[in-house]
Amino acid sequence: MGNQQSGSCCDGLIDSEVLTSREEPLTPEEETKFMSNMVNGCDTEIVFADGTSMPCSLMYDLAEDCLHMVVEDKRRIVALNDIYEILEADSVSGLSNMEKAMIINPCIVAFRLKSTRKAILLRFRDAKESQGFYHFLKDVIQDNEDKEGSDSAANMTEDDTQVPSQTVII
Question: pTM of this prediction?
Fold first, then answer.
């Protein structure tokens, strides 16, 4: 199972209409089907900076609140609280030209980890799976931001919450 050149059912479908359709919410049936696939294991491909890819099994672990990614019998665990950004055409700093070109593919979802600042690109078999994962990540990132906001608010002291006076008395 070596590297294979990137080729997908969706390579010819790269247009702005397809990409904006990613933002559209899934129907309840589509969302249920997607989450069932994620919990039971979803076959994708991990895409590398040079455009090659390898089969990747992706599974959402409800108990541990993480993703299990298995590539060639090597398992990587990605904590959901480590995911902080979905990479799109306007957020490509630090990516190679090849990666920049790939993230506009509607079957590829790219996201960045907070701990390493590294990007992970996953290619799904169809645009609906990609759309489901995109919405899943958006929810994860929103939850992470909400938790981070509530944690920092809880850690503030009374002095931190007081707004300093804008009036200077001489």
Answer: 0.73
